[in-house]
Structures are given as C-alpha cells and as structure tokens.
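Need S-adenosylmethionine:tRNA ribosyltransferase-isomerase's 3D structure for a figure. Predict it.
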Amino acid sequence: MKTIEFDYYLPSHLIAQHPVDERDMSRLLVLHKDSGEIEHRNFKDIIEYLSNGDVLILNDTKVIPARLFGYTNQEKPFEVLLVKQLQTNLWEVLVKPIRKARIGLELVFSDELKGVICKYRHGRSVMEFSFLGDFFSVLEMIGHMPLPPYIKRFDNSRDHQQYQTTYAANPGAIAAPTAGLHFTPELLSMIQKKGVQIAYITLHVGIGTFKPIQTQDIHDHQMESEYYIIPDETKEILISNPSRVIAVGTTSVRTIESFFTTNAQAGWTDIFIYPGYRFKRVDVLITNLHTPHSTPLMLASAFAGKDILLETYQEAIEKEYRFYSYGDSMLIV
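Structure prediction for S-adenosylmethionine:tRNA ribosyltransferase-isomerase:
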C-alpha cells in the first residue's frame, strides 16, 4: 500500500491556528461507517450517540512545555525540543539550527536550567541537563508549549490551558491527544450521569504522532515507540465489560490494541495500525481530522475504510471544517 494513497488537498485557511472559544462548541462530523451516512453536529451533541453501559476511554497524558530556547554567547537562540526522556537529566532532543548541534554545545536556558549535547542517538542529539529543583517544575516556568509545525505562530498563555485536556494528569507528552481537547468537565459529568463508564489510560504522545511518513510504501515505515500505562481498574473494565468501547483519539486506540496484542499492561509500543488491521476491542472512535500521509490518518482509515474516510474528508473540506490539532472533531460509529 502506497503512502500517496493517503494524500488529499487541504486549503491552508482550514488549518486551525487557534482553539475555539469553548471546547465543546467545535463542530462534530458523524460518520456511520457501514452505511456511509454523514451528520453534521456540534461536539456537545456527542452525548446523543453514547448509551448506558458504554465505556469511554480517555488518554490522561499531560503535555509538558517541551520547547526551549537556549543561548551560548551568540545573540540568536537555539531552539530545543525535548523528544524522549532517557534518564532523569538526559533527553533525546531536536536542535535548531541542526548544523550547529555539535557534541559539546552548551546552552543556557535560564538561571535554573542549562544543557550540553553529550552524544548522538538514532540520528538525534542527546542533551544532559543541569537544573535547580525539580526538572518539570523548571519547565513549567520557562518552557513553551510544543505546538505542531502547521500552527504558524508562537505559543501564548492560552495555549498552556487549551493545548491540554481538562483531565490531563500524567506529565510526559510532547503533543496533545487532540481528540480529548473537546471535552469539558461538565460534558464528562453529563456523560457519566447517562450511565457511561469513563476509564483512563496514559500514552505519552511523542514526535511520531505528527511526523509524516517518508517512505513510499507504508509497510516500510517504522513507528516511533511511545510509553503507555493501563491502570488495573481500566484493564478490568476492558476485559470484563462486554459493552461498546469508545476510544477517544488514536492514542487511546493504540494503547488498547497494544494491550490486547501483547497482554502488557505497561511498556513501549510501536504498533502501526493501517487498513487491513482487525480491531480487537475498539468499537467506536472519536478523533480529529488528520494530516495527509500521517499515521493517525491511516489508523482512522483502518477503522472506517480508506475510501469512505477520504470521501468524508472531502465533504468536511466543502463544509469548511477546521482541521488538525485545534480543529473540529469526528465520530466514527
């Protein structure tokens, strides 16, 4: 299967650059995958598609302010993106400008945080940090939210709240599980009152989530591994509850399917889901509208069917839905 088969043209003005004013007032495109029927709703209407006894799975990872600006004795700063924590003070990072990212490069980010490139790993720099106090607390003070590259602006104070789900609890992601951005505490409370069981998993979203596939054949693509945890309570629900499982986001799907593939409740997963995959425990998918050539688009294609999904995307474009991380939502039933 060729990567080019997952291409489509999106006018640039449909790439959402800012979040909507109220999370649950984003639009909701409902796709009935068996019939091909499409409905156009608002996200708060999603409760109408949930039933007593359903299980709603949410990813409670928390985005860390992983974008840093460090200085040497030059005026122009280096940009550093934290990619993967290897040890307490050791991180795999992306550095710009990359041509100057040499071993021994020392950067000062603030009085509390400094770093030096100590080696290379898998084609990326590894930076050793020295800091005062707790590393993540320092990040909260000086770090910037790692907005994806198609958002053509710097982050602001609003992004620190809006590029984060309202139920985020476990720091470690460098990208938001964007399907969950639409839920408000009030909406989740209403969903629970309807008899829907809400359970949580954690998958720390990494750089692979928004990285386009570079290979011509999708089978040649290697997913970047991401760390996940399924709490005992959620494991018990997934195993013993025969009701529908509604996964919020592709990261929740990948976590659930990883568990039912390997039986590992925690660990690193590089599961790559594309058309032809047979889902083991996910019945309904809530997701955003994804970038061309991306692994989330391929997962959604596997769930809905590639042709019907891309046809639905064309209707979303015609109806001027907002796409990508801060964009509108899609429910596939």
